């Protein structure tokens, strides 16, 4: 297997692109692909300021590294959930700290314990659907932080596999609300920072190869509350199809991005009010975040 560019020994084979690359040319190829997606979907202005939501997993760390190398002003944000079981939060935090120190990326750690004197395990005793509340918590903190520092956008590490699997699941259910929101960019609105997914067109195998190439060491600990990964069976089906038709996943998702406006017009968003505590838009006041963490009633 030879590199498409230099004919040297290939390090990675990418059937979806009908190509193989040596380490150097794969690196250049990967950066170019992400740069193209950022431009195509108008994610960031050149040299723009971006907060990257870091979890300690490979996808978010790769997102931060690519944006940093493409010349954006990157700041990592890690939300410490205070989950000590299985060393989950401390190990995740350490993975982020080591990555940021190695690559010269500033890191902000937002600790629930430091802010509110408790973490996710304390809340889990009271609320059975802890992942939903954990999601609300992370999204709130990240949005509020991105607005507070005045960054151009908040980036998350969602991959092509995540986006295609969610699209597949939402299409099977004809869930118009989510079908309207599956784009790699959600524009800024009053009280909402712009949200971007720079790896939305990069497949898992490409991201894994890029992480290995740059010796990114993601956290290995698994959250004790994690149920079966979301959309796992949809990913499996898409991967089986991809094996027979390389490039199918990307064509499926990219095709959707051209059609997403059709769903938008069909979707009525619930009316928003302003949370009396944090001042951000929400469906109720106080918002769920302020009710849980600030004991607002
Ligand atoms: Fe939070 Fe659930 Fe993810 Fe654990 S598995 S980090 S509780 S969303
Ligand atoms: Zn090469
Ligand atoms: Zn609030």
TrEMBL record:
One of its GO terms (molecular function) is transferase activity. Keywords: ATP-binding, Metal-binding, Nucleotide-binding, Transferase, Zinc. ATP binds at residues 53-55, 59, 79, 157, 162. It comes from Thermodesulfitimonas autotrophica. Residues 50-220 form the tRNA(Ile)-lysidine/2-thiocytidine synthase N-terminal domain. Signal peptide: none annotated. GO terms for biological process: tRNA wobble position uridine thiolation. Residues 2-26 form the 2-thiouridine synthetase TtuA-like N-terminal LIM domain. The keyword ATP-binding applies. It comes from the Bacteria. It holds the Pfam family ATP_bind_3. Zn(2+) 2 binds at residues 275, 278, 287, 290. This is Uncharacterized protein (TIGR00269 family). One of its GO terms (cellular component) is cytosolic tRNA wobble base thiouridylase complex. Zn(2+) 1 binds at residues 3, 6, 22, 25.
């Amino acid at each position: 297997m030879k590199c498409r560019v230099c004919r040297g020994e290939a390090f990675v084979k990418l059937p979806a692109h009908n190509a193989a690359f040596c380490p150097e040319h794969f690196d250049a190829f990967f950066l170019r692909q992400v740069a193209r997606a950022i431009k195509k979907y108008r994610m960031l202005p050149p040299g723009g300021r971006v907060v990257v939501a870091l979890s300690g997993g490979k996808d978010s760390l790769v997102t931060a590294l690519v944006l940093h190398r493409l010349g954006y002003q990157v700041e990592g944000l890690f939300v410490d959930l205070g989950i000590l079981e299985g060393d989950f939060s401390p190990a995740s935090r350490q993975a982020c700290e080591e990555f940021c120190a190695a690559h010269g990326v500033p890191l902000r750690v937002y600790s629930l314990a430091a802010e509110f004197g408790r973490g996710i395990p304390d809340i889990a005793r009271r609320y059975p659907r802890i992942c939903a509340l954990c999601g609300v918590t992370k999204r709130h903190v990240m949005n509020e932080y991105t607005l507070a520092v005045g960054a151009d956008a908040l980036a998350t590490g969602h991959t092509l596999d995540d986006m295609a699997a969610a699209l597949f699941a939402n299409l099977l259910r004809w869930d118009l609300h989510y079908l309207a929101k599956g784009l790699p960019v959600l524009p800024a609105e009053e009280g909402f920072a712009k949200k971007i997914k720079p790896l939305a067109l990069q497949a898992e195998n490409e991201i894994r190869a890029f992480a290995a190439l740059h010796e990114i060491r993601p956290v290995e600990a698994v959250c004790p509350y994690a149920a079966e990964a979301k959309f796992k069976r949809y990913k499996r089906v898409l991967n089986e199809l991809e094996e027979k038709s390389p490039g199918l996943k990307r064509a499926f998702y990219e095709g959707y991005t051209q059609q997403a406006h059709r769903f938008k017009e069909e979707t009525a968003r619930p009316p928003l009010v302003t949370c009396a505590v944090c001042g951000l838009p929400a469906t109720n006041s106080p918002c769920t975040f302020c009710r849980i963490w600030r004991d607002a009633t």
